[in-house]
Design brief:
This protein is mainly β. It has 7 helices and 52 strands. The strands form 13 sheets. The chain has a 22-stranded antiparallel β-barrel. Strand 34 and strand 35 form a beta hairpin. It is globular, with a radius of gyration of 30 Å. The relative contact order is 0.13.
């Protein structure tokens, strides 16, 4: 039976070494062997092994690692994640958790629940702490190679070198190269391939038994065609056939009516992810680029008319292959100094330099219709003498020479998401280990984070439209300079000088400091009280640059009138935890730990993206508030059956205030705050009933409920009220007017033969009627030039709805069996099954938001001989080849309200060979 006893894993969840079963926190931990056998290759795979965890990539090269319903559903340069990512206890605000792979790890710890007292800011959901292997005083080395489908080649290695009695050096690295999971049907090249590597060097210094330090350098580099998103979902919205029975104009051969109908389209209909035709294409007439196409006469009707996407979710249809470049350098210096037998001083310094550049086709499918060689006669420049000849000279054959998108005679749009960040972190802690009843852990922390970067959207119809305006105003279509010139950036990679593209730019500076501590009272041999407090001061500053698309001049836009050059917010909060852990002698267990804690967590608020302004644009609030969570958690950790089983259970209840959630309004991210209640139960167990047989389970049940708040769903602004109508503004944003107002505007447009007159329907000419309910609770903000009331839409009550990406059940089951052969050879067969139930991508919980549950099966076979150091492996990941959607991002009105979906990886398989020295 002794051979079946489960070996204890030592963790540092409370920033001191403890056996996992002695830690009064819900924590899952995996050493390198467990990561390898379970094929937990990187951060995204942790979802398969930890209860009540959800993971998905995000739209802007980020991700959402969600624990117990808490993660990062906000989009803001000054926003914080709800789950803290740490490397050797140092926080990483910008990181490569979803890109890099785990290699040469001592262990990975996932702490569930608010951890703000010891781990600091943005840990309301929990913490993922990556602990790298440190140098030892014995020589060892490892090299591991792996090949698999998609022409996968992996190489990992490590060498540990004791230099003398004081110094030791550990070097480690990983390399991954594979073909794409799909194909770019335009270029014929692979889509979503990988070419990345990581290197790490750790130098340890231990001159005495009391003093130990290490210096670490970690480098990550990726340069490939990784796809930021999976598939674009859109059920085309062709626009209503008529407006309450009133038809569109039939003049000019129906060309006026064609544009009018497009202005009543929102681009994509609000349909289920699983409905027929959902892999359609956006109605370009319902987008900003399509509006410019109509104004300039470039495009007649929908650029994507009649087009459907390929049904293969891995394939794309892009004008160019995605570009993905990421580089990170991390430097850490850590000192552990035993000042006395009972006092240890820890000093941790970390610096991170993070660079990212990604570029891809915005819509990921090419148009079915080319630009006009001669302008559509219904255009905004029809009154300009000789416009036809001017158009032909500027755009021969309908080709727009857009420096960012190259010359094309079809609608072409691309985007760039880039970032450059630096981070300093200092932490000083003093920790006691007295024999008496009282001990403490006191510390101070300073963090400085600075980020700059851009999110560009570049569309050739916009450039063409501004080239026309520039020619008429300055005589030079590609002028560069002050007003009246609308600068056309001549560079292929934009440099912020242009006003011919969308550029969201706002350098961000965070200065945070904190004082924290925990006091421990060992009341008797089995019962301990813990009291923790933390004071945090967060100061955030963002350069105030409104988007200057189409604004005469050069360079980034300035602040909106009446707003400062630097936007500032500051938050000062005190948080903490209080509770006990108790080790009773129950008789029917070998060892039991019972614990109960109350904790209060905090995540700072921030600044929303500057509003673009413009006609018909209704701006959101300038800031968003902090999050607070009051959490109660009780748990039990049991070792039973003579040490052959661990059985851990946790129950929790959260009262969440100010949960931050984002939506894109008028080309700007607006973050809102809502309140919620969260409760759940988690069960984790490992059982080794027989020699060689190991069974494990991790089961989570979660119930989330939004308790207050309301919000306008931009995907369904009318909430299907037949008496309300969605219509485009001059900025291609959407607003809501009632049927009578829509008919009035259309009647006037018909009478004057100008479809573009409809664009003023969203612009309040006065505040008359503001606050009037125009139907379904949609409140007017004013009256337009046609005498109709204008509203942002029908607010949706969020009471009783679930938090996004919070499945009710997550189930992880595993089994492995090891057979011993002669000469110390063994074979281990392992299988892991994971399932999560349905969830919603957004707070509205509409049918459009529902994401089906999914499952995953991993299988591994490992043949090893510890004496010789050889190990041979084979694996299958996602054995059933599930095509599961993990989340989606809904874009804004001016892009047509398509959804970018994110998928799990397809089935992969391969073999590996490893040698230890």
């Amino acid at each position: 039976m002794a051979q079946n006893v489960i070996q204890e894993l030592v963790v540092t969840a409370q920033k001191r070494e403890e056996a996992l079963q002695d830690v009064p926190i819900a924590v899952s931990a995996f050493d390198q062997e467990a990561l390898q056998k379970g094929k937990i290759d990187g951060g995204p795979n942790l979802v398969l092994a930890v209860p009540n965890v959800n993971f998905s990539k995000g739209n802007f090269t980020g991700y959402n690692f969600q624990i117990r319903g808490i993660g990062s559903k906000l989009v803001a340069g000054s926003g914080d994640a709800g789950t803290g990512i740490h490397l050797n206890n140092a926080p990483l605000i910008s990181n490569n958790l979803f890109e890099t792979e785990f290699y040469d790890m001592e262990r990975v710890e996932v702490l569930r629940g608010p951890q703000g007292t010891l781990y600091g800011r943005n840990a309301t959901g929990g913490v993922v702490n990556l602990i790298t292997a440190k140098p030892t005083d014995e020589f060892e080395a490892l090299i591991r190679g792996e090949i698999g489908n998609f022409s996968t080649r992996k190489l990992r290695g490590m060498v540990n070198l004791p230099l003398n009695d004081t110094f030791a050096l550990r070097l480690a690295g990983t390399y991954l190269k594979r073909d794409g999971f799909g194909t770019n049907l335009v270029t014929g090249h692979d889509a979503d391939d990988r070419d990345l590597y990581g290197l790490r060097a750790t130098l340890s210094f231990q001159p005495t038994e009391e003093f130990h330090a290490y210096f670490l350098i970690d480098h990550f580099n990726e340069e490939d065609n990784r796809s930021r998103i999976g598939k674009q979902f859109c059920t085309k919205d062709t626009g209503p056939a008529n407006i309450g029975g009133l038809g569109y104009s039939t003049a000019a051969g129906g060309l006026i009516g064609q544009i009018q109908r497009g202005l009543f389209s929102q681009g994509c209909l609000a349909t289920s992810l699983y409905s027929p035709n959902v892999l359609g294409t956006v109605n370009s007439q319902g987008t900003l680029g399509g509006l410019f196409g109509a104004l300039g006469g470039f495009q007649t009707g929908d650029a994507y008319a009649g087009k459907m996407q390929t049904q293969d979710v891995r394939d794309i249809e892009s004008t160019f292959d995605p570009i993905y470049r990421s580089k990170t350098d991390i430097y850490q210096f850590n000192v552990d100094w035993d000042l006395t037998e009972n006092l240890r001083l820890n000093w941790l310094v970390a610096y991170t330099d993070f660079d990212l550049f990604t570029r891809q086709d915005y819509n990921r499918y090419v148009p079915s219709n080319a630009f006009n060689s001669s302008p559509n006669p219904v255009n905004a420049f029809a009154a300009v003498p000789g416009y036809g000849a001017l158009y032909a000279s500027l755009f021969p054959g309908g080709v727009i020479n857009d420096p960012q998108n190259s010359p094309y005679n079809r609608f072409t749009t691309s985007d760039i998401s880039s970032a450059e960040t630096t981070q300093w972190n200092h932490e000083l802690r003093l920790q006691s280990a007295y024999d008496g009843p009282f001990n403490f852990n006191l510390g101070a922390n300073m963090l400085r984070y600075q980020a700059t970067g851009d999110y560009y959207v570049m569309f050739n119809t916009g450039t063409g439209y501004y080239q026309i305006n520039n020619l008429l105003a300055t005589g030079n279509p590609n002028c560069v300079g002050a007003a009246p010139c609308i600068t056309v950036d001549p560079n292929s990679d934009p440099d912020r000088s242009g006003r011919n593209y969308y550029d969201s730019y706002g350098p961000y500076d965070l200065a945070s400091h904190a004082f924290f501590g925990e006091l421990y009272w060992q009341m008797n041999d089995t019962f301990k009280w813990t009291l923790g407090l933390r004071y945090t001061d967060d100061k955030k500053e963002v350069e105030n640059h409104q988007v200057a698309l189409g604004v005469p001049g050069i360079g980034p836009g300035g602040p909106l009138p009446g707003t400062p050059d630097i936007l500032k917010v500051q938050f000062k909060e005190t948080t903490g935890r209080f509770g006990f852990d108790w080790k009773p002698d129950l008789g029917f267990t070998d060892d039991t730990l019972l614990y109960a804690f109350y904790s209060r967590g905090y995540k700072a608020g921030g600044l929303n993206s500057p509003c673009s302004g413009g006609g018909g644009v209704i701006c959101g609030p300038a800031t968003f508030d902090p999050e607070f969570v009051n959490a109660i958690e009780i748990g039990a950790k049991n070792t039973i059956l003579n040490g052959t089983m661990t059985l851990n259970a946790t129950a929790f209840h959260y009262d969440y205030k100010g949960y931050q959630v984002s939506k894109i309004i008028n080309r700007a991210s607006t973050n809102e705050n809502i309140d919620a209640k969260i409760k759940g139960v988690e069960l984790e167990s490992v059982w080794q009933p027989l020699q060689g047989l190991r069974l494990n389970a991790a089961i989570g049940w979660l119930d989330t409920e939004i308790s207050s708040g309301q919000s306008i769903d931009t995907f369904n602004r009318t909430q299907s009220n037949p008496n309300l109508v969605v219509i485009k503004s001059s900025a291609a944003s959407n607003c809501v007017i009632d049927m009578v107002a829509a008919q009035t505007a259309l009647s006037i447009s018909n009478a004057i033969g100008n479809p573009f007159a409809l664009l003023s329907a969203c612009t309040p000419a006065s505040t008359a009627g503001a606050g009037t309910n125009i139907g379904g609770g949609a409140l007017a903000v004013g009256t337009n030039a046609f005498g109709g009331l204008v509203s942002d839409g029908v607010p949706v009550s969020l009471d009783g709805r679930e938090l996004p990406n919070a499945p009710h059940w997550t189930i992880s089951l595993g089994a492995q069996y090891t057979i011993e052969f002669g000469n110390n050879w063994s074979a281990t067969l392992r299988g892991d099954y994971y399932k999560q139930t349905d969830t919603y991508a957004r707070i509205y919980n509409a049918e459009t938001d529902k994401i089906d549950g999914w499952q995953n099966v991993n299988l591994t076979l490992t043949i090893a001989n510890p004496d010789s150091g050889w190990e041979i492996g084979a694996f299958v990941k996602n054995a059933t080849d599930e095509e599961a959607i993990t989340d989606f991002y809904l874009t804004d009105d001016s892009s047509g309200l398509f959804r970018n979906a994110f998928y799990t990886e397809p089935r992969t398989y391969g073999v590996s060979l490893q040698k230890r020295f």
